């Protein structure tokens, strides 16, 4: 199915990670289930009953945060909601990526469709219309503490619903929101009681980035097995350590899957067979970066699986404060606190850094004549005149060093706000932002290992690699045989795109079947 023609239904059951990616990254349309609209209308009736109540109710007839004790008269309540959104749309810095904003919008729509927030049906339908029209509010990098929701990012989207601020249309052109709405046939909403608060009080930004990261890291973990297999081949390593019975001695699920991938990828390798005879090969065992690859890549898989469990629970949640319960109460709560999501975002940044680190160590072995088992220094054609892949490894090392800094957790760095009313926050948005940079860095590190291992394997000719790794090398775009030094940066960028597009994984899986 063409992703652009796909439809994601919202409201009956929880969204999946795949749903989020389909809408955020591939432009799938969103539709709200009719029964959800009925529940939205029912909860709105509860809010409207409270609007006339002389007793103050948070979010309906009071201020917000540290100003929650201030009662707001009826005549000022529409202005209260407008002021809330305008004041909270206080982001700063570079624009956040389109796919992140679309994920955030979808996830806020999902919570609104539960009927637990008290908004009107027309507000929800306008939000869906904005998303389906490809209108993406301009959201800035800084502004969320990951508590009381991703307030500033969500407020920029709510501001667009009001017809204010700036957006990008489906073609990416920057426009005033009013112009984009008119072109799409949309009418801005005039917010009423509780609606401004409902639009900005959720973990949607950090959750959206978690869903995207889980998707990318799941694929990169498989690709890391491909580059590891290529390095084992190119460095004349052994596949004996990947035997299934050895990994059954330590029944870690991710480790077993990675080892199985490595066995499949190395099957039929002439290079491996060339040094299987123990009388001809005097090395007792390989370095950790080769031998322990399944343990590291497997631990990454297990961490991703844990993150997926947290994401799935959050996707089934209705995050707002206060919420309209099924029995009609309007109840304050703390579900907007992003701690569960922030923790796994930080955890993923740790394993991302470590997977890149072991990849860089394998690359470095190719370049050192004392460890490369007969390859020329730095894989250079004429060492001394040529530098080969010397500086490609520098690039890897620089990225890995950056990834180690990005692995420092954001979730331990709470900072109080709102006159100490919000005295503990999750920093989940910050954890998500640094994870996105880390995922990009990992992709680049693996792409450089791919290039280096491919050159090392080519230098083993006439011995041939296994069919799976040979297919990956053959599919590498614009990469020549080893020879004199050439402008290396374009080759690296083509390799990065080769990995990002999924073509590298597809080339291997065309031989092995689906990797796990």
TrEMBL record:
<dbReference type="InterPro" id="IPR024083">
    <property type="entry name" value="Fumarase/histidase_N"/>
</dbReference>
<dbReference type="InterPro" id="IPR005921">
    <property type="entry name" value="HutH"/>
</dbReference>
<dbReference type="InterPro" id="IPR022313">
    <property type="entry name" value="Phe/His_NH3-lyase_AS"/>
</dbReference>
<dbReference type="GO" id="GO:0005737">
    <property type="term" value="C:cytoplasm"/>
</dbReference>
<comment type="similarity">
    <text>Belongs to the PAL/histidase family.</text>
</comment>
<dbReference type="GO" id="GO:0019556">
    <property type="term" value="P:L-histidine catabolic process to glutamate and formamide"/>
</dbReference>
<dbReference type="InterPro" id="IPR001106">
    <property type="entry name" value="Aromatic_Lyase"/>
</dbReference>
<keyword id="KW-0369">Histidine metabolism</keyword>
<dbReference type="Pfam" id="PF00221">
    <property type="entry name" value="Lyase_aromatic"/>
</dbReference>
<comment type="pathway">
    <text>Amino-acid degradation; L-histidine degradation into L-glutamate; N-formimidoyl-L-glutamate from L-histidine: step 1/3.</text>
</comment>
<dbReference type="GO" id="GO:0019557">
    <property type="term" value="P:L-histidine catabolic process to glutamate and formate"/>
</dbReference>
<dbReference type="InterPro" id="IPR008948">
    <property type="entry name" value="L-Aspartase-like"/>
</dbReference>
<keyword id="KW-0456">Lyase</keyword>
<dbReference type="GO" id="GO:0004397">
    <property type="term" value="F:histidine ammonia-lyase activity"/>
</dbReference>
<protein>
    <recommendedName>
        <fullName>Histidine ammonia-lyase</fullName>
        <ecNumber>4.3.1.3</ecNumber>
    </recommendedName>
</protein>
């Amino acid at each position: 199915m063409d992703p652009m023609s796909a439809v994601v239904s919202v409201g009956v059951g929880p969204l999946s990670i795949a749903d989020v990616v389909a809408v955020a990254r591939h432009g799938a349309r969103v539709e709200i289930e009719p029964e959800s609209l009925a529940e939205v209308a029912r909860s709105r009736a509860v809010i409207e009953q409270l609007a006339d109540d002389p007793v103050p109710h948070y979010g309906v007839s009071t201020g917000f945060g540290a100003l929650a004790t201030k009662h707001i008269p009826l005549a000022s309540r529409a202005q209260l909601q407008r002021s809330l959104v305008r004041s909270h749309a206080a982001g700063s810095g570079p624009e956040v990526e389109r796919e992140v904003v679309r994920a955030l919008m979808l996830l806020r729509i999902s919570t609104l469709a539960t009927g637990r927030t008290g908004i009107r049906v027309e507000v929800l339908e306008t939000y869906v219309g904005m998303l389906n029209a490809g209108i993406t509010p301009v959201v800035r990098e800084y502004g969320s503490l990951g508590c009381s929701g991703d307030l500033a990012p969500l407020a920029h989207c709510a501001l667009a619903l009001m017809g204010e601020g700036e957006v990008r249309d489906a073609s990416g052109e920057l426009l005033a929101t009013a112009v984009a709405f008119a072109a799409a046939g949309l009418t801005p909403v005039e917010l009423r009681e509780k609606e401004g608060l409902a639009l900005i009080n959720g973990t949607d930004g950090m959750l959206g980035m978690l869903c995207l990261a889980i998707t990318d890291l799941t694929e990169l973990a498989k690709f890391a097995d491909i580059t590891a297999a290529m390095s084992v081949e190119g460095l004349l390593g052994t596949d004996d350590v990947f035997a299934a019975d050895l990994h059954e001695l330590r029944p870690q699920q991710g480790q077993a899957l990675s080892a199985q991938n490595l066995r499949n990828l190395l099957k039929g390798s002439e290079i491996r067979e060339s040094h299987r005879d123990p009388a001809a090969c005097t090395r007792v065992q390989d370095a950790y970066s080769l031998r322990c690859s399944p343990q590291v890549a497997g631990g990454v898989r297990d961490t991703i699986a844990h993150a997926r469990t947290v994401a799935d629970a959050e996707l089934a949640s209705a995050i707002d404060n206060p919420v309209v319960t099924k029995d009609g109460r309007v109840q304050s709560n703390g579900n907007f606190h992003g701690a569960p999501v922030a923790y796994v975002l930080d955890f993923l940044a740790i394993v991302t850094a470590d997977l890149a680190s072991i990849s860089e160590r394998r690359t470095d072995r190719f370049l050192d004549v004392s460890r490369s088992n007969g390859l020329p220094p730095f894989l250079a054609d004429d060492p001394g005149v040529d530098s080969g892949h010397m500086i490609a490894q520098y690039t890897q090392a620089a990225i890995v060093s950056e990834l180690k800094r990005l692995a420092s957790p954001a979730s331990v760095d709470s900072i109080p706000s709102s006159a100490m009313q919000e005295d503990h926050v999750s920093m989940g948005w910050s954890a998500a932002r640094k994870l996105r940079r880390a995922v990009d860095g990992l992709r680049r590190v693996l792409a450089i290992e791919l290039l280096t291992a491919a050159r090392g394997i080519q230098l083993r000719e006439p011995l041939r690699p296994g069919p799976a790794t040979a297919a990956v090398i053959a599919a590498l775009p614009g990469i020549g045989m080893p020879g004199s030094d050439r402008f290396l940066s374009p080759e690296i960028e083509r390799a990065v795109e080769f990995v990002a597009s999924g073509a590298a994984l597809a080339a291997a899986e065309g031989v092995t079947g689906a990797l796990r």
